[in-house]
Structures are given as structure tokens and as C-alpha cells.
Amino acid sequence: MSTNSDEVMAEKSDIDTSRRGFFRAATRGVSQTFETPDAPAINVGRPLGAVEESLFDRLCNQCGECAAACPQGVINLSSRGPELDLSLNHCTFCQKCIHACDTQALNPLNTIDTGLRPKFTNSCNARLFGNCEECYEDCPRSAIELQPNQLPTLNDNCNGCGECVSSCYIGAISLCASH
């Protein structure tokens, strides 16, 4: 007989537990202590499909079903309610969190963007040495553009999935709220 926790654990297997993923996560904090970004790095926002903030606060009962349904393990419950945390993994836009939400605080009409954008710091190896293309190669929407020895730039294809953050093995990318 399968329990609900067994199902959640099976779904959580999509989290990047490879050796490469471990070292990306383990070394990420080291480089971020040497540089203070202009915009605060948050890597956190409301889950995919979140309605406007004041309505979200009224609708969300903080049941945790969205967090339990997320196969990537990127939704956590905090004192403010559920939050999308893309510091260690990325959002695949699978919408399982939305389908798990009975209160409509997460709505399928709001599923094209997380509202977060990558910020590239000066410690980026593509800028310093011109020898890194990890974020460029891993971006599922080809939203990152590279020029030799310059910081990567974004085009309009970015949806804030966070794949670039989890692909950067030195932690030179953080996410900030888009303007």
C-alpha cells in the first residue's frame, strides 16, 4: 500500500541530485559573499500562477498542497505562505502546484512567467575568462546571449524559470524581481 509521502518522495526525484548539481549548490554561496549586487538577490517569489498579492493573501490558506505537489521541490512554506525558491533548482512550469490548489490562490491563467529575472555578477566566468557557457547552454528558452568577455544579457524570451541559477557552478547568477 503506497502512502502519500511515498508518492511525494517519488515525485521529488526530479530534483537535481547529480554530483554536478551538488557542487553547484555547495559552491554557490562562496562567490556571493565577495560581491554585493546592485539589486537584492532574492531567488524567491510567489509560486507559479499566484494571483495578485492582496487577493493571494486572502485566498491562500497555507495548506501546503502546492509544496507537496511540486516535483522540483521549489515551493516552500514560510511565515508569508508558499514561496517559490529557485536557489537550488528550477521551475519546469508543470502546473502541478496550481492543480493542487483548491482555493484558487494559484490560477492557471498566470502561468507564463515567475516574475523573476537573473542578475549576473562580475564574478561570472564568461565575463572574466570567456570560457563558460553553462547558463547559455542550459536555458530552455534561449533567453541568454553571450558576447566574449562580457556579462551575459537577457532577451525577451526569459520566463524566470531559474535554470540558469542552478546551472551556474560558481554562483554568479541570482534572481531578482522583474520590473
UniProtKB/TrEMBL annotation:
Residues 49-80, 82-111, 150-178 form the 4Fe-4S ferredoxin-type domain. It comes from the Bacteria. SUPFAM superfamilies: 4Fe-4S ferredoxins. PROSITE patterns: 4FE4S_FER_1, 4FE4S_FER_2. Keywords: 4Fe-4S, Iron, Iron-sulfur, Metal-binding, Repeat. GO terms for molecular function: 4 iron, 4 sulfur cluster binding; metal ion binding. The keyword Iron applies. This is 4Fe-4S ferredoxin-type domain-containing protein.
